[in-house]
Amino acid sequence: MAYSGQVGGKLSVEEGKAAARICALNLLSQLRTSCGGDMDRVKRCIKLNIYVNSASSFSSQPAVANGASDLMVEIFGEKGVHVRSAVGVAALPGNAAVEVDGEFEILI
User: Fold this and answer.
1) Structure letter (DSSP) for residue 89
2) CA atoms within 13 A on the CB side of 105
3) How do residues 25-36 score in pLDDT, each as one tens digit?
4) Which residue, of 3, 30, 49, 97, is most buried by count of CB atoms within 10 Å of its CB?
5) Do residues 16 and 7 touch, judged by C-beta distance below 8 A?
6) What is the CATH code for 13-106?
7) Nearest to residue 98, comparing CAs of 9, 4, 1?
8) Predicted pLDDT at 17
9) CA 74: distance to chain centroid?
10) Cα(83)–Cα(92) distance, rounded to whole angstroms?
């Protein structure tokens, strides 16, 4: 399911969290491609940046970001523990609810 619109407006925190999880799954797909299909090459998740399309009065971006952060720990265990930023923005391309980017350490 694709989520579009502002969290704290059209979308609830739980819907935003689900959107963040989907974004993190897409990020992991790209990571897998970068690793030649071998996810054992991932040494750790270093950092996630989560951008939340937020209504003007919305201030629970960290709760939304947990959708992505929790997935990294779920998949990688202790190697998935990372630093992060959770930022509210006025709009995202395509009216997306959430956007996630990340930095990973991989074995060459």
Assistant:
1) E
2) 8
3) 999 999 999 999
4) 97
5) yes
6) 3.30.1330.40
7) 4
8) 98
9) 13
10) 22
For residue 1, pLDDT over 80 is answered with: no
2-23 per-position pLDDT tens digit:
899 999 999 999 999 999 999 9
**How far does CA 6 lie from the centroid of its chain?**
16
Tell me the three state secondary structure of residue 88.
strand
**Average pLDDT value for residue range 60-86:** 98
Contact residues for 80 (Cβ-Cβ < 8 A; gap 6+): 44, 45, 72, 73, 74
Degrees to nearest 5, angle at CA 81 with 80 and 85: 110
Adjacent-strand bridge partners of 88: 52
> Could you give the percent of the chain with pLDDT greater than 70?
99
Residue 31 tokens, joined: 């990571």
| 17: its two tokens | 């969290």
Under a CB-based contact definition with an 8 Å cutoff, are residues 60 and 22 in contact? no
The domain ranges of the chain are: 13-106
Dig out the tokens for 97 from the structure: 């609810």
